[in-house]
Amino acid sequence: MVYAVVRAGGRQEKVEVGTIVVLDRIQADKDGNVELAPVLLVDGDKITHDAKALADVKVVAEVLNDLRGPKIVIQKFKNKTGYKKRQGHRQEQTRIKITSIN
């Protein structure tokens, strides 16, 4: 069993080949692929976490689609002053599928 922990969008995700992951919006190359930086690689009993050894490892993913996350509502209120503020936000996201770990 081969899996990797990759750095993506300020977070770390555990991925295997075929895993579908939703990340913050990232741009794909002209072929629609993205290369992610590995932090840890597990290949059976062999665990690799050295930066020099991980420089040779490539985790390639295919971009499936771009989407937007759920709407969150930000409300601020101060009592007895008449101050009210309401704001919404939807995070830009990308759904990717891991195609290879080399």
TrEMBL record:
The keyword Electron transport does not apply. GO terms for cellular component: cytoplasm; ribonucleoprotein complex; ribosome. InterPro entries: bL21-like, bL21-like_sf, Ribosomal_bL21, Ribosomal_bL21_CS. PROSITE patterns: RIBOSOMAL_L21 (PS01169). Transmembrane segments: none annotated. One of its GO terms (biological process) is translation. Belongs to the bacterial ribosomal protein bL21 family. This protein binds to 23S rRNA in the presence of protein L20. This is Large ribosomal subunit protein bL21. It comes from Conyzicola lurida.
